[in-house]
Design the sequence.
Protein backbone atom coordinates (compact mmCIF):
# COMPACT_ATOMS: atom_id res chain seq x y z
CA UNK A 1 0.00 0.00 0.00
CA UNK A 2 1.45 3.38 -1.01
CA UNK A 3 0.14 6.15 1.23
CA UNK A 4 0.72 9.80 0.31
CA UNK A 5 -0.64 13.21 1.28
CA UNK A 6 -3.00 12.88 -1.68
CA UNK A 7 -4.53 9.54 -0.63
CA UNK A 8 -5.07 11.02 2.85
CA UNK A 9 -6.64 14.19 1.41
CA UNK A 10 -9.27 12.44 -0.74
CA UNK A 11 -9.69 9.24 1.28
CA UNK A 12 -8.69 6.63 -1.32
CA UNK A 13 -6.46 3.56 -1.01
CA UNK A 14 -4.12 4.14 -3.97
CA UNK A 15 -2.51 7.35 -5.32
CA UNK A 16 -4.11 6.92 -8.76
CA UNK A 17 -6.76 9.15 -10.36
CA UNK A 18 -8.91 8.55 -13.44
CA UNK A 19 -9.02 11.98 -15.06
CA UNK A 20 -12.21 13.60 -16.27
CA UNK A 21 -12.55 12.82 -19.99
CA UNK A 22 -15.22 14.16 -22.31
CA UNK A 23 -17.67 11.37 -23.38
CA UNK A 24 -15.70 8.82 -21.30
CA UNK A 25 -16.01 9.83 -17.61
CA UNK A 26 -19.35 8.07 -17.02
CA UNK A 27 -20.73 6.22 -14.00
CA UNK A 28 -19.72 2.68 -15.04
CA UNK A 29 -16.03 3.62 -15.45
CA UNK A 30 -15.91 5.92 -12.40
CA UNK A 31 -17.50 3.30 -10.12
CA UNK A 32 -15.10 0.60 -11.35
CA UNK A 33 -12.13 2.88 -10.60
CA UNK A 34 -13.55 3.72 -7.15
CA UNK A 35 -14.15 0.04 -6.37
CA UNK A 36 -10.52 -0.63 -7.30
CA UNK A 37 -9.42 1.81 -4.56
CA UNK A 38 -8.45 4.70 -6.85
CA UNK A 39 -10.22 8.04 -7.46
CA UNK A 40 -12.69 8.14 -10.35
CA UNK A 41 -14.10 11.38 -11.79
CA UNK A 42 -17.41 11.85 -13.61
CA UNK A 43 -17.07 14.40 -16.42
CA UNK A 44 -19.79 17.00 -15.74
CA UNK A 45 -20.04 18.39 -19.28
CA UNK A 46 -20.43 14.93 -20.85
CA UNK A 47 -23.95 15.15 -19.40
CA UNK A 48 -26.16 17.34 -21.65
CA UNK A 49 -27.83 19.17 -18.71
CA UNK A 50 -27.22 19.71 -14.97
CA UNK A 51 -30.26 17.45 -14.31
CA UNK A 52 -28.57 14.66 -16.28
CA UNK A 53 -25.45 15.15 -14.16
CA UNK A 54 -27.54 14.69 -10.99
CA UNK A 55 -28.86 11.39 -12.42
CA UNK A 56 -25.37 10.23 -13.43
CA UNK A 57 -24.03 10.89 -9.90
CA UNK A 58 -26.95 8.86 -8.48
CA UNK A 59 -26.22 6.05 -10.99
CA UNK A 60 -22.58 6.00 -9.85
CA UNK A 61 -23.65 5.82 -6.18
CA UNK A 62 -25.72 2.74 -7.03
CA UNK A 63 -22.53 1.09 -8.32
CA UNK A 64 -20.06 2.03 -5.56
CA UNK A 65 -19.96 3.10 -1.92
CA UNK A 66 -16.37 4.39 -2.27
CA UNK A 67 -15.37 8.06 -2.74
CA UNK A 68 -15.53 9.50 -6.27
CA UNK A 69 -15.53 13.02 -7.67
CA UNK A 70 -16.68 15.18 -10.58
CA UNK A 71 -14.59 17.05 -13.18
CA UNK A 72 -15.75 20.54 -14.20
CA UNK A 73 -13.71 21.94 -17.09
CA UNK A 74 -14.06 25.66 -17.83
CA UNK A 75 -13.10 26.39 -21.44
CA UNK A 76 -13.76 29.30 -23.77
CA UNK A 77 -16.86 28.51 -25.86
CA UNK A 78 -19.04 30.28 -28.42
CA UNK A 79 -22.01 29.33 -26.24
CA UNK A 80 -20.73 28.55 -22.73
CA UNK A 81 -22.55 25.84 -20.79
CA UNK A 82 -24.42 26.94 -17.63
CA UNK A 83 -21.43 26.36 -15.32
CA UNK A 84 -23.17 27.75 -12.23
CA UNK A 85 -26.03 25.25 -12.67
CA UNK A 86 -23.63 22.31 -13.11
CA UNK A 87 -21.78 23.53 -10.01
CA UNK A 88 -25.05 23.64 -8.05
CA UNK A 89 -25.91 20.09 -9.17
CA UNK A 90 -22.51 18.89 -7.88
CA UNK A 91 -23.02 20.64 -4.52
CA UNK A 92 -26.60 19.43 -4.08
CA UNK A 93 -25.57 15.84 -4.86
CA UNK A 94 -23.20 15.95 -1.88
CA UNK A 95 -20.04 15.37 -3.93
CA UNK A 96 -16.93 16.03 -1.79
CA UNK A 97 -14.16 16.01 -4.44
CA UNK A 98 -14.09 18.15 -7.60
CA UNK A 99 -11.41 18.42 -10.30
CA UNK A 100 -11.44 21.82 -11.99
CA UNK A 101 -9.56 22.56 -15.20
CA UNK A 102 -9.35 25.45 -17.63
CA UNK A 103 -9.71 29.19 -17.19
CA UNK A 104 -9.87 31.13 -13.94
CA UNK A 105 -11.94 28.87 -11.69
CA UNK A 106 -12.02 31.34 -8.76
CA UNK A 107 -15.84 31.72 -8.51
CA UNK A 108 -16.23 27.91 -8.60
CA UNK A 109 -13.45 27.37 -6.06
CA UNK A 110 -15.00 29.92 -3.67
CA UNK A 111 -18.45 28.34 -3.95
CA UNK A 112 -17.22 24.73 -3.64
CA UNK A 113 -15.09 25.62 -0.60
CA UNK A 114 -18.18 26.98 1.21
CA UNK A 115 -19.58 23.44 1.06
CA UNK A 116 -16.43 21.67 2.28
CA UNK A 117 -15.57 20.26 -1.13
CA UNK A 118 -11.92 19.31 -1.82
CA UNK A 119 -10.72 20.83 -5.10
CA UNK A 120 -8.00 19.46 -7.38
CA UNK A 121 -7.06 21.99 -10.07
CA UNK A 122 -5.44 20.68 -13.24
CA UNK A 123 -2.93 22.98 -14.97
CA UNK A 124 -0.02 22.86 -17.40
CA UNK A 125 2.47 25.30 -15.87
CA UNK A 126 4.10 26.14 -12.54
CA UNK A 127 2.77 29.71 -12.64
CA UNK A 128 -0.83 28.51 -13.06
CA UNK A 129 -0.31 25.95 -10.26
CA UNK A 130 0.86 28.70 -7.90
CA UNK A 131 -2.06 30.91 -8.93
CA UNK A 132 -4.52 28.05 -8.17
CA UNK A 133 -2.80 27.45 -4.83
CA UNK A 134 -3.37 31.12 -3.96
CA UNK A 135 -7.04 30.74 -4.95
CA UNK A 136 -7.40 28.12 -2.21
CA UNK A 137 -7.54 24.80 -4.07
CA UNK A 138 -6.57 21.71 -2.04
CA UNK A 139 -4.39 19.91 -4.59
CA UNK A 140 -2.81 20.43 -8.01
CA UNK A 141 -2.76 18.07 -10.98
CA UNK A 142 0.26 19.17 -13.03
CA UNK A 143 -0.12 18.19 -16.67
CA UNK A 144 2.96 17.61 -18.83
CA UNK A 145 3.33 18.00 -22.60
CA UNK A 146 2.88 14.24 -23.17
CA UNK A 147 -0.78 14.38 -22.15
CA UNK A 148 -3.93 13.92 -24.20
CA UNK A 149 -6.15 16.98 -24.56
CA UNK A 150 -4.78 20.46 -23.78
CA UNK A 151 -1.04 20.46 -22.91
CA UNK A 152 -0.80 24.28 -22.85
CA UNK A 153 1.61 26.29 -24.97
CA UNK A 154 4.86 25.92 -22.98
CA UNK A 155 5.72 22.41 -24.26
CA UNK A 156 7.31 21.38 -20.96
CA UNK A 157 7.47 17.59 -20.53
CA UNK A 158 6.70 15.94 -17.19
CA UNK A 159 10.32 15.12 -16.40
CA UNK A 160 10.96 18.85 -15.98
CA UNK A 161 7.48 20.17 -15.13
CA UNK A 162 6.77 17.85 -12.18
CA UNK A 163 9.94 18.61 -10.15
CA UNK A 164 9.80 22.30 -11.13
CA UNK A 165 6.27 22.45 -9.69
CA UNK A 166 7.20 20.31 -6.66
CA UNK A 167 9.92 22.83 -5.78
CA UNK A 168 7.33 25.59 -5.40
CA UNK A 169 3.87 24.14 -4.76
CA UNK A 170 3.20 23.40 -1.08
CA UNK A 171 -0.17 21.61 -1.34
CA UNK A 172 -0.35 17.95 -2.50
CA UNK A 173 0.28 17.53 -6.21
CA UNK A 174 -0.44 14.67 -8.60
CA UNK A 175 1.25 14.20 -11.97
CA UNK A 176 -0.65 13.99 -15.27
CA UNK A 177 0.43 13.21 -18.82
CA UNK A 178 2.22 10.05 -19.93
CA UNK A 179 1.31 7.75 -17.02
CA UNK A 180 0.15 4.18 -17.54
CA UNK A 181 2.07 1.74 -15.34
CA UNK A 182 3.92 1.17 -12.07
CA UNK A 183 7.16 2.62 -13.44
CA UNK A 184 5.37 5.90 -14.09
CA UNK A 185 3.91 5.96 -10.58
CA UNK A 186 7.35 5.47 -8.99
CA UNK A 187 8.87 8.10 -11.30
CA UNK A 188 6.14 10.61 -10.37
CA UNK A 189 6.70 9.98 -6.65
CA UNK A 190 10.47 10.34 -7.13
CA UNK A 191 9.96 13.67 -8.93
CA UNK A 192 7.95 15.07 -6.01
CA UNK A 193 4.33 14.24 -6.89
CA UNK A 194 1.95 12.46 -4.49
CA UNK A 195 0.24 10.30 -7.12
CA UNK A 196 -0.67 10.06 -10.80
CA UNK A 197 -3.62 10.99 -12.97
CA UNK A 198 -4.34 8.76 -16.00
CA UNK A 199 -6.76 9.40 -18.86
CA UNK A 200 -5.79 7.41 -21.95
CA UNK A 201 -4.83 4.34 -19.85
CA UNK A 202 -8.30 4.27 -18.22
CA UNK A 203 -9.96 4.72 -21.65
CA UNK A 204 -8.45 1.38 -22.52
CA UNK A 205 -10.10 -0.73 -19.78
CA UNK A 206 -12.94 -3.23 -19.86
CA UNK A 207 -15.38 -0.84 -18.12
CA UNK A 208 -14.56 2.21 -20.26
CA UNK A 209 -17.80 3.14 -22.10
CA UNK A 210 -16.24 3.48 -25.56
CA UNK A 211 -16.24 1.13 -28.56
CA UNK A 212 -14.02 -1.96 -28.40
CA UNK A 213 -12.42 -1.04 -31.75
CA UNK A 214 -11.18 2.26 -30.32
CA UNK A 215 -9.63 0.42 -27.37
CA UNK A 216 -7.94 -1.96 -29.82
CA UNK A 217 -6.67 1.02 -31.82
CA UNK A 218 -5.05 2.46 -28.64
CA UNK A 219 -3.35 -0.90 -27.97
CA UNK A 220 -2.10 -1.06 -31.59
CA UNK A 221 -0.85 2.55 -31.61
CA UNK A 222 2.67 3.44 -30.51
CA UNK A 223 3.94 6.62 -28.84
CA UNK A 224 4.14 8.47 -32.18
CA UNK A 225 0.43 8.14 -32.99
CA UNK A 226 -0.73 11.58 -31.84
CA UNK A 227 -1.10 14.96 -33.52
CA UNK A 228 -1.03 18.46 -32.06
CA UNK A 229 -3.91 20.43 -33.55
CA UNK A 230 -4.81 24.13 -32.99
CA UNK A 231 -1.11 24.98 -32.52
CA UNK A 232 -1.43 28.03 -34.77
CA UNK A 233 -4.45 29.20 -32.72
CA UNK A 234 -2.54 28.89 -29.41
CA UNK A 235 -5.12 26.44 -28.13
CA UNK A 236 -3.09 23.26 -28.68
CA UNK A 237 -4.81 19.90 -28.30
CA UNK A 238 -3.10 16.49 -28.44
CA UNK A 239 -5.32 13.97 -30.20
CA UNK A 240 -5.03 10.48 -31.67
CA UNK A 241 -3.46 10.67 -35.13
CA UNK A 242 -6.02 9.83 -37.81
CA UNK A 243 -7.13 11.00 -41.25
CA UNK A 244 -8.90 14.06 -39.80
CA UNK A 245 -6.15 15.21 -37.42
CA UNK A 246 -3.57 14.92 -40.23
CA UNK A 247 -5.82 17.03 -42.49
CA UNK A 248 -6.33 19.70 -39.77
CA UNK A 249 -2.54 19.97 -39.17
CA UNK A 250 -1.99 20.37 -42.93
CA UNK A 251 -4.75 23.02 -43.21
CA UNK A 252 -3.21 24.96 -40.31
CA UNK A 253 0.16 24.94 -42.09
CA UNK A 254 -1.64 26.54 -45.04
CA UNK A 255 -3.06 29.29 -42.81
CA UNK A 256 -6.49 27.89 -41.93
CA UNK A 257 -8.46 29.61 -39.16
CA UNK A 258 -10.81 27.87 -36.71
CA UNK A 259 -13.85 28.57 -38.92
CA UNK A 260 -12.17 26.60 -41.73
CA UNK A 261 -11.71 23.45 -39.62
CA UNK A 262 -14.76 23.79 -37.35
CA UNK A 263 -16.81 21.08 -39.12
CA UNK A 264 -13.90 18.62 -39.06
CA UNK A 265 -13.22 19.04 -35.32
CA UNK A 266 -16.85 19.18 -34.12
CA UNK A 267 -17.39 17.46 -30.76
CA UNK A 268 -20.36 15.52 -32.13
CA UNK A 269 -18.06 13.79 -34.63
CA UNK A 270 -15.58 12.91 -31.87
CA UNK A 271 -18.41 11.44 -29.83
CA UNK A 272 -19.34 9.24 -32.81
CA UNK A 273 -15.84 7.69 -32.82
CA UNK A 274 -16.49 6.27 -29.34
CA UNK A 275 -19.98 5.11 -30.32
CA UNK A 276 -19.26 3.50 -33.72
CA UNK A 277 -15.61 2.45 -33.32
CA UNK A 278 -14.63 4.21 -36.56
CA UNK A 279 -11.38 5.86 -35.42
CA UNK A 280 -11.33 8.16 -38.48
CA UNK A 281 -14.81 9.59 -38.02
CA UNK A 282 -13.75 12.56 -35.89
CA UNK A 283 -11.12 14.02 -33.59
CA UNK A 284 -10.56 12.05 -30.35
CA UNK A 285 -8.13 12.53 -27.49
CA UNK A 286 -5.25 10.19 -26.73
CA UNK A 287 -1.80 10.76 -25.26
CA UNK A 288 1.70 9.55 -26.10
CA UNK A 289 1.22 6.92 -23.38
CA UNK A 290 -0.46 4.83 -26.10
CA UNK A 291 3.04 3.44 -26.64
CA UNK A 292 2.91 1.87 -23.15
CA UNK A 293 -0.59 0.36 -23.43
CA UNK A 294 -0.61 -3.29 -24.49
CA UNK A 295 -3.87 -4.72 -23.12
CA UNK A 296 -7.49 -4.00 -22.08
CA UNK A 297 -7.71 -5.01 -18.40
CA UNK A 298 -10.51 -4.38 -15.89
CA UNK A 299 -9.97 -1.28 -13.72
CA UNK A 300 -9.38 -3.57 -10.72
CA UNK A 301 -6.67 -5.50 -12.60
CA UNK A 302 -5.05 -2.29 -13.85
CA UNK A 303 -4.92 -0.52 -10.49
CA UNK A 304 -3.66 -3.56 -8.56
CA UNK A 305 -1.01 -4.24 -11.24
CA UNK A 306 0.27 -0.64 -11.13
CA UNK A 307 0.51 -0.67 -7.33
CA UNK A 308 2.14 -4.12 -7.34
CA UNK A 309 4.72 -3.02 -9.98
CA UNK A 310 5.45 0.20 -8.10
CA UNK A 311 5.97 -1.62 -4.80
CA UNK A 312 8.26 -4.17 -6.47
CA UNK A 313 10.41 -1.40 -8.01
CA UNK A 314 10.70 0.43 -4.70
CA UNK A 315 11.33 -2.71 -2.60
CA UNK A 316 13.43 -4.89 -4.90
CA UNK A 317 15.07 -2.80 -7.57
CA UNK A 318 15.86 0.33 -5.53
CA UNK A 319 16.74 -1.45 -2.30
CA UNK A 320 18.87 -3.91 -4.28
CA UNK A 321 20.80 -1.03 -5.82
CA UNK A 322 21.31 0.56 -2.40
CA UNK A 323 22.42 -2.62 -0.69
CA UNK A 324 24.77 -3.34 -3.62
CA UNK A 325 26.35 0.07 -3.17
CA UNK A 326 26.64 -0.52 0.58
CA UNK A 327 28.29 -3.87 -0.05
CA UNK A 328 30.85 -2.28 -2.35
CA UNK A 329 31.55 0.46 0.20
CA UNK A 330 32.14 -2.17 2.90
CA UNK A 331 34.60 -4.00 0.69
Sequence:
Amino acid sequence: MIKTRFTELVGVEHPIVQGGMQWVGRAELVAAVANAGALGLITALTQPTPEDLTKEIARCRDLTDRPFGVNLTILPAIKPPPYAEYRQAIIEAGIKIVETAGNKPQEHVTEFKKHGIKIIHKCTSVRHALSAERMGVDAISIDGFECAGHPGEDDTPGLILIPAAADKVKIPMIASGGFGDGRGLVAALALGAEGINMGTRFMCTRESPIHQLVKERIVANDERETDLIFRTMRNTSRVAKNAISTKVVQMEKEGAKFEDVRELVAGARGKMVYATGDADEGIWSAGQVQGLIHDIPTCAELVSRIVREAEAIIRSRFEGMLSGAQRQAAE
Notes: Residues 5-208 form a domain with the TIM Barrel fold (CATH 3.20.20.70). The CA atoms of residues 108 and 277 lie 35 Å apart. The mean pLDDT is 96. The longest helix spans residues 299-330.
